[in-house]
Amino acid sequence: MDFTFSEEQQAAAEAARGVFAGVAPDAVPSPALTTGAVADECDRALWARLADADLLSLLSDQEYGGAGLDAVALCLVLRESAKVLARVPLLENSAAMAAVQAYGGPELRGALLERAGRGEIVLTAASSGRTGHDPAELAVTARREEGEEPGWILDGVQTAVPWAYDADFVVVPAHTAGGRTVLALVPRVHEGVVLGEQFSTSGERLGELRLESVRIAARDVIDVEGAWEWLRDLLTTGTCALALGLGERVLRMTSEYTGQRVQFGFPVATFQAVAVQAADRYIDLRAMEVTLWQAAWRLASGARGALPVAGDVAVAKIWASEGVRRVVQTAQHLHGGFGADVDYPLHRYHAWAKHLELSLGPAAAHEEALGELLAAHPLG
Asked: 134-188, pLDDT tens digit by residue?
């Protein structure tokens, strides 16, 4: 078995490292000192550089100006973005584009993919549901409207939509009376669409999306079985990649600090208690990494396994949500007072890690979901 990344995947990661090399994690005000959002919009200059490096069209086919790569390549790039706390909707835009390409009609693909790949428009996705605890597809209803111009009418609320104020279109899952889930491409500025400000723990601006009898043309609605589940798994796996990249950067910061901090005449990194804690967090990161690549590979290849791909995604979520929390907590402990110093970037990583943990949800819930899958698909 070959566990190495392909040349194309490695090239994407290398390009990402070049683009993110000059990004400062503390380029915006600290969330600890800011009432409201740390900035009015995402990092538009960085977004333009990503477009110039063809990293926004990573998953698009060549006919739409893309590289035709897969979820593994996207996760490699997201991993690099999290190391510098890149303030761009790279995950949401890429996942939404991939869903449109995989499940959307020719007219929708032609209208969105090339423009989104060039950074001219931004896509995001609503995946938190009405409260953040309920299934996103149940938060909005969709009913078909017949007539000369057939379409769909949407009603409902989606909370904590990332980069909602930066996006031109929001991919909204909605359920029909027949129990199906459709994906609607909802323009941010549209009759019946109301955005309310919300703020993440990292200080980023989120949006509560209210839909009041919003009419969407039939071409802008994806009514294909499995489309939402595939998009949800890709968003989740990408979030695990962000958690991994953030955790790796934090552990490196901790290693550098404890290697220089001297107590009783010796660097604190040489103390057994410090070394054991750092080793435990290294194990967490390696577990996060292997479960991430398993889930990303299943999504990219469509390979069959003992469990549905949702099982691999659940395992990755368990390790990512628990692991990223343990990594930043240990880092805060080993940094001492520096961990809480707003002039030192570690507290920003802690805030972002908490947001990622909340986005992924509690590990216990994923363990329960995994148990149900194991009961439905007994191994052996």
From this structure: 899 999 999 998 877 889 999 999 999 999 999 999 999 999 999 999 999 999 9
User: Which two structure tokens, joined as six digits, stand for 32?
Assistant: 């600890």
Cβ(359)–Cβ(239) under 8 Å? yes
Q: What is the DSSP letter of 5?
A: P
The type of residue at 304 is: R
Distance CA 149, CA 165 (A): 29
- For 286-324, b where at least 16 C-beta lie within 10 A, e where not — what string? ebbbebbbbbbbbbbeeeeeebbbbbbbbbbbbbbbbbb
* pLDDT tens column, 22-51: 999 999 999 999 989 999 999 999 999 999
Phi-psi region of 302 (alpha: psi -120 to 50; beta: other; left: phi over 0): left
User: Two tokens at 357?
Assistant: 């943990």
- Rounded to 5 degrees, what angle do the CA atoms 183, 164, 232 make? 40
